[in-house]
C-alpha cells in the first residue's frame, strides 16, 4: 500500500510536518569569527584567514582572538614570554595524567588535563574579562605540555620536562613530541595548522 493510498483512506487530513528545529533562530552573536559570509570564506575579527595563515605566527592570531587586536612587535615578544612561563604542569596534574591509559583518545586526555588544571588552579572570584583572558592564555600554553606529558609517560614510561625554551607553541609541541628542536619548515607548518583550526564560529554538527 502506497503512502498516497494511506492518505486517501484516512479520515484526517495529514499535513507534512515542517521542520523547525533551529531554523531561523540566532545561535549567538560573536565578533571573533565569521564563516561563509560571502562564500567559502573564514575571517577572524575581520581578517581573512588566508592572509593570517600566510603572514602571521600562531601567537599573533591567538592575541588577536583573545585580546582583541594583532600585537605590535613589542607586544608579541611580551606575549610569547608570558606564554612560555605558563607551560609548566603542577604535580597534581601530572599525577592525573600518569593514571590515564595509553589507549585514551588525545581529546579525552586534554579534557581531563584541563579539568585537573582547573581544580588545582581554580578560577578567581568575579569572572572578570582579564581573568578569562588569563585562563585562555594558560590553556594555550599548557595544552601541548598536557598532551605530550601523557603521551611519553603512557607509551614509554618517561616523565618528560614539559617546559622548553622554544619561542612558539608550535615549536614547543614539536620539541616535546620529538625530543629535539624542530626545523623552521616544521614549525611554520604547525603555525599554519594552528591558525586554521583556531576558531570556526560554531560546531557545524550542532546546528545541522
UniProtKB/TrEMBL annotation:
Gene3D superfamilies: Citrate Synthase, domain 1 (1.10.580.10). GO terms for biological process: carbohydrate metabolic process; propionate metabolic process, methylcitrate cycle; tricarboxylic acid cycle. One of its GO terms (molecular function) is 2-methylcitrate synthase activity. This is 2-methylcitrate synthase. It comes from the Bacteria. Pfam families: Citrate_synt. The lineage of its organism: Bacteria, Pseudomonadati, Pseudomonadota, Gammaproteobacteria, Enterobacterales. Belongs to the citrate synthase family. InterPro entries: Citrate_synth-like_lrg_a-sub (IPR016142), Citrate_synthase (IPR002020), Citrate_synthase_sf (IPR036969).
Amino acid at each position: 500500500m502506497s503512502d498516497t493510498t494511506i492518505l486517501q483512506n484516512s479520515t484526517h487530513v495529514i499535513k507534512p510536518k515542517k521542520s523547525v528545529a533551529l531554523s531561523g533562530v540566532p545561535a549567538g552573536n560573536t565578533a571573533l569569527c565569521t564563516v561563509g559570509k560571502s562564500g567559502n570564506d573564514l575571517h577572524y575579527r575581520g581578517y581573512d584567514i588566508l592572509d593570517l595563515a600566510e603572514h602571521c605566527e600562531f601567537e599573533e592570531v591567538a592575541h588577536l582572538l583573545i585580546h582583541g587586536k594583532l600585537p605590535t612587535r613589542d607586544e608579541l615578544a611580551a606575549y610569547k614570554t608570558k606564554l612560555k612561563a605558563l607551560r609548566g604542569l603542577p604535580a597534581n596534574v601530572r599525577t592525573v595524567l600518569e593514571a590515564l591509559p595509553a589507549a585514551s583518545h588525545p581529546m579525552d586526555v586534554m579534557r581531563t588535563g584541563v579539568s585537573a588544571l582547573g581544580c588545582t588552579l581554580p578560577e578567581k572570584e568575579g569572572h572578570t574579562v582579564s581573568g578569562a583572558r588569563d585562563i585562555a592564555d594558560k590553556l594555550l600554553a599548557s595544552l601541548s605540555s598536557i598532551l605530550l606529558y601523557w603521551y611519553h609517560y603512557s607509551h614509554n614510561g618517561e616523565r618528560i620536562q614539559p617546559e622548553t625554551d622554544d619561542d612558539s607553541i608550535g615549536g614547543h609541541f614539536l620539541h616535546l613530541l620529538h625530543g629535539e628542536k624542530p626545523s623552521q619548515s616544521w614549525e611554520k607548518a604547525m603555525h599554519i595548522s594552528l591558525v586554521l583550526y583556531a576558531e570556526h564560529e560554531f560546531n557545524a554538527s550542532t546546528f545541522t
